[in-house]
Amino acid sequence: MWMAKKIPLRQCVGCGEMKGKKEMMRVLKTPEEEILLDATGKKNGRGAYLCKEKECLVKARKNKGLERSFKMKIPNEVYDNLEKEFDTLEK
């Protein structure tokens, strides 16, 4: 009997929606406490997921979703850098 492959679901830290891992952006906290976008989804570190919509990044900033996921204070510059990276991906 053939079984359907289970799609790994992840929750967006912005809107809280559950989506397939492939449809989302991974935000990474490296062991050096650096926060960056992980386009490959394979880098080492703690990951949190965002929908590919910029509104979700804005929501995550408001509701401190990333701060909860990474259990640390996230400076505004980091969010600004994430927004810039998002802009380059959208083009």
From TrEMBL:
Gene3D superfamilies in the record: YlxR-like
InterPro entries per record: YlxR, YlxR-like_sf, YlxR_dom
Pfam families found in the cross-reference section: YlxR
Record-annotated YlxR domain positions: 10-84
Source organism superkingdom: Bacteria
Protein name (Swiss-Prot/TrEMBL): YlxR family protein
